[in-house]
Design a protein that fits this description.
With 108 residues, this protein is mainly alpha-helical. It has one domain. It is built from 4 helices and 2 strands. The protein is elongated, with a radius of gyration of 15 Å. The two termini are 18 Å apart. The N terminus is likely disordered.
Protein backbone atom coordinates (compact mmCIF):
# COMPACT_ATOMS: atom_id res chain seq x y z
CA UNK A 1 0.00 0.00 0.00
CA UNK A 2 1.31 3.45 -0.84
CA UNK A 3 2.11 5.93 1.88
CA UNK A 4 -1.05 7.83 2.91
CA UNK A 5 0.70 11.19 2.50
CA UNK A 6 1.21 10.39 -1.17
CA UNK A 7 -2.37 9.20 -1.58
CA UNK A 8 -3.84 12.39 -0.12
CA UNK A 9 -2.42 14.45 -2.97
CA UNK A 10 -3.34 12.07 -5.73
CA UNK A 11 -6.24 12.53 -8.10
CA UNK A 12 -7.52 9.46 -9.84
CA UNK A 13 -9.20 9.46 -13.17
CA UNK A 14 -11.95 7.06 -13.96
CA UNK A 15 -11.45 6.19 -17.58
CA UNK A 16 -13.78 4.26 -19.76
CA UNK A 17 -12.62 2.11 -22.62
CA UNK A 18 -15.15 3.61 -25.00
CA UNK A 19 -18.66 4.93 -25.11
CA UNK A 20 -20.03 3.39 -28.25
CA UNK A 21 -22.36 4.94 -30.75
CA UNK A 22 -25.12 2.90 -32.38
CA UNK A 23 -24.25 -0.68 -33.34
CA UNK A 24 -23.31 0.36 -36.87
CA UNK A 25 -20.52 2.61 -35.63
CA UNK A 26 -16.98 1.60 -36.47
CA UNK A 27 -14.20 1.39 -33.89
CA UNK A 28 -12.90 4.74 -35.17
CA UNK A 29 -16.12 6.40 -34.10
CA UNK A 30 -16.01 5.30 -30.46
CA UNK A 31 -15.83 8.09 -27.91
CA UNK A 32 -13.97 7.81 -24.58
CA UNK A 33 -15.12 9.55 -21.41
CA UNK A 34 -13.49 10.22 -18.07
CA UNK A 35 -14.25 11.92 -14.79
CA UNK A 36 -11.82 13.02 -12.10
CA UNK A 37 -12.52 11.90 -8.56
CA UNK A 38 -10.60 13.76 -5.88
CA UNK A 39 -10.02 12.31 -2.45
CA UNK A 40 -7.30 14.40 -0.86
CA UNK A 41 -9.81 15.20 1.91
CA UNK A 42 -10.13 11.52 2.87
CA UNK A 43 -7.92 9.11 4.78
CA UNK A 44 -8.38 6.08 2.53
CA UNK A 45 -6.33 3.95 4.90
CA UNK A 46 -9.25 4.02 7.33
CA UNK A 47 -12.60 2.36 6.80
CA UNK A 48 -14.70 5.56 6.83
CA UNK A 49 -12.47 7.32 4.30
CA UNK A 50 -12.32 4.28 2.03
CA UNK A 51 -16.12 3.92 2.14
CA UNK A 52 -16.59 7.58 1.20
CA UNK A 53 -14.16 7.25 -1.68
CA UNK A 54 -15.83 4.05 -2.89
CA UNK A 55 -19.20 5.82 -3.03
CA UNK A 56 -17.61 8.65 -5.03
CA UNK A 57 -16.06 6.15 -7.43
CA UNK A 58 -19.37 4.31 -7.84
CA UNK A 59 -21.24 7.52 -8.67
CA UNK A 60 -18.57 8.69 -11.11
CA UNK A 61 -18.52 5.29 -12.85
CA UNK A 62 -22.31 5.37 -13.17
CA UNK A 63 -22.20 8.82 -14.76
CA UNK A 64 -19.35 7.98 -17.11
CA UNK A 65 -20.90 4.69 -18.22
CA UNK A 66 -24.44 6.02 -18.54
CA UNK A 67 -25.85 3.60 -15.96
CA UNK A 68 -28.09 6.36 -14.64
CA UNK A 69 -29.76 6.62 -18.05
CA UNK A 70 -31.45 3.26 -18.41
CA UNK A 71 -34.24 4.31 -20.75
CA UNK A 72 -32.21 5.11 -23.79
CA UNK A 73 -31.82 3.61 -27.22
CA UNK A 74 -30.30 0.15 -27.45
CA UNK A 75 -32.43 -1.75 -24.95
CA UNK A 76 -30.98 -4.83 -23.30
CA UNK A 77 -27.72 -4.73 -25.27
CA UNK A 78 -27.07 -1.16 -24.17
CA UNK A 79 -27.89 -1.99 -20.54
CA UNK A 80 -25.42 -4.87 -20.63
CA UNK A 81 -22.73 -2.61 -22.10
CA UNK A 82 -23.37 -0.05 -19.38
CA UNK A 83 -23.06 -2.64 -16.62
CA UNK A 84 -19.83 -4.06 -18.08
CA UNK A 85 -18.42 -0.55 -18.40
CA UNK A 86 -19.39 0.22 -14.80
CA UNK A 87 -17.75 -2.93 -13.39
CA UNK A 88 -14.57 -2.54 -15.46
CA UNK A 89 -14.26 1.15 -14.65
CA UNK A 90 -14.73 0.61 -10.93
CA UNK A 91 -12.26 -2.30 -10.95
CA UNK A 92 -9.60 -0.17 -12.67
CA UNK A 93 -10.08 2.79 -10.34
CA UNK A 94 -9.73 0.61 -7.23
CA UNK A 95 -6.56 -1.01 -8.58
CA UNK A 96 -5.09 2.37 -9.51
CA UNK A 97 -5.63 3.82 -6.02
CA UNK A 98 -3.94 0.80 -4.41
CA UNK A 99 -5.50 1.03 -0.93
CA UNK A 100 -6.05 -2.18 1.04
CA UNK A 101 -9.13 -0.73 2.78
CA UNK A 102 -10.67 0.32 -0.56
CA UNK A 103 -9.87 -3.04 -2.16
CA UNK A 104 -11.53 -4.87 0.75
CA UNK A 105 -14.70 -2.81 0.31
CA UNK A 106 -14.69 -3.40 -3.45
CA UNK A 107 -14.17 -7.15 -3.10
CA UNK A 108 -16.87 -7.24 -0.44
Amino acid sequence: MKDSKVLKGVVTTIAVFAFSLPAIASADELKGRAEKVTYSDLDVGKSAGAESLYRRLQQAAKRVCGVEYVRGPGGIRERGRQQNCYRDTLDQAVVKIDSAALTNIHNG
